[in-house]
Amino acid sequence: MNRFITAVCAAAIGVAAAVTASGPAQGDPGAVDQVTDLDQRIPGSATAERVVYTTRNSLGEPVRASGALFVPRGTPPPGGWPVIAWEHGTVGRADACAPSGTDFTFYRPYLENLLAQGYAVAATDYIGLGTPGEHAYLDGRAAAQASIDMVRAARAADPTLSSRWAAAGHSQGGHAALFTASIAAVYAPELDYRGAVAFAPGASITDTMLLLGRPGTPDILPAGMKTYTAYVLGGVRAARPAFDLDAYLTPLGRRIVADGARLCYDDMTATLEGVSMADMFAKPLSEGDFEAVARPVLDVPLTGYTRPLLIVQGTNDIDVPAPMVWRQAAELRAAGVEFTITDYPGYDHMQALDATHAEVNPYLASLFR
Q1: CA 8, 223, 234: angle at the middle one, nearest 5?
Q2: Between 349 and which of 109, 190, 319, 340 could a Cys-Cys bridge form, CB atoms 3.0 to 4.6 Å apart?
Q3: What sign does the CA torsion over 65, 268, 314, 341 have?
Q4: Can you tell me the distance from the alpha carbon of 329 to that of 323, in angstroms, rounded to the nearest whole number?
Q5: How confident is the model over 330-353, as pLDDT tens digits?
Q6: CA distance 226 to 233
Q7: What secondary structure does DSSP assign to 259-327, as a single string?
């Protein structure tokens, strides 16, 4: 789960606000509300556009989302450019963090790689990043639907795109990619879904929150883990507005969760240096209804996978520790899900994405053959 450079986030505020459509969301999922040119192009792209479109949140309500569409240079193959639905990692919960309102920073090399392989890239921002409403961080169903509807919207915006598509995501986006893989064939049967790759996917999130979210948690966690905690808590509340999160939080905890709705990762993490997570909680998350509310939002589905799935994990990852992903993989196996998992000894969080092209590029190519 990754970081946007603070200065880039701050500069994006005006851009994101300027191109956000207003009024209630209307139309079917994937209906296009607005298309504007992006100033920043990924190398290898012939066109770069920001698309605002209609999708559904995990309660089934129509909402807006935004994303970026990058189309390769050259002549599209027969049937049109195959599409990769790109699902980004953690950037924050504020509008200023939306990738389509910035320049994709550390994900630019990977998107350039996809374009070089001959894929159009439909990269959702998710709901509430650059569009009205709060971002429900790690609400997997909402992220998956926003990603699939971004493919629909991209095809509506550019007729050179094929109906053939696959999903790829890293960290928060890896978590989203697993949800996408579980619903894609049913949610959008008119599209030709081929499979997914999940890099360092967020896993075992509810269980981790139940373990750490309590008074008395030892103050040994890095500030980044506290940022993730604040984002998860705010995300659950955004996904389920009727849930009384404040009942679990101290005044400090409430302020930190509120900060999470306005600060991108680097700024948020800087505010949490020296803050003890134990001081955030008035009572343990294991009490009351937090678990019952959080699991449908955060927990990766164990059914619905009908196409190939690849999970890629670095063993030295400290953002998404490998044992959490291995546990998730064991749960999927026990449920009868067929997939491939590849571990990379010594690789960290970003290396699992940036240094694995030799395996993943052929895997993606095989999905479209």
Answers
A1: 75
A2: 319
A3: negative
A4: 10
A5: 999 999 999 999 999 999 999 999
A6: 11
A7: HHTT-BHHHHHHHTTT--GGGGBSS-TTSTTHHHHHHHHHSPPSS---S-EEEEEETT-SSS-HHHHHH
Q: Which residue has the tokens 């700024």?
A: 267
On whether the pTM is more than 0.85, the answer is: yes
Q: What is the pLDDT of residues 123-178, one digit of tens each?
A: 999 999 999 999 999 999 999 999 999 999 999 999 999 999 999 999 999 999 99
**CA distances to 157, 184, 367 from 364, in Å:** 24, 16, 5
Coil, helix or strand for 333? Answer: helix
* 115 φ, ψ (degrees, to nearest 5): -60, -40
Main-chain dihedrals φ then ψ at residue 306, nearest 5 degrees: -120, 0
CB 260 within 8 A of CB 234: yes
Between β-strands 62-72 and 120-127, what pairing exists: parallel, antiparallel or unpaired?
antiparallel
pLDDT in tens, 262-306: 999 999 999 999 899 999 999 999 999 999 999 999 999 999 999
Residue 264 and residue 260: Cα distance in Å, rounded? Answer: 8
Distance CA 149, CA 28 (A): 9
What distance in Å separates the CA atoms of residue 87 and residue 191, rounded to the nearest whole number?
Answer: 18
What is d(CA 169, CA 177) in angstroms, rounded to the nearest whole number?
5
CA 238 from chain centre, in angstroms, equals 15
Phi and psi torsions of 330, nearest 5°:
-65, -40
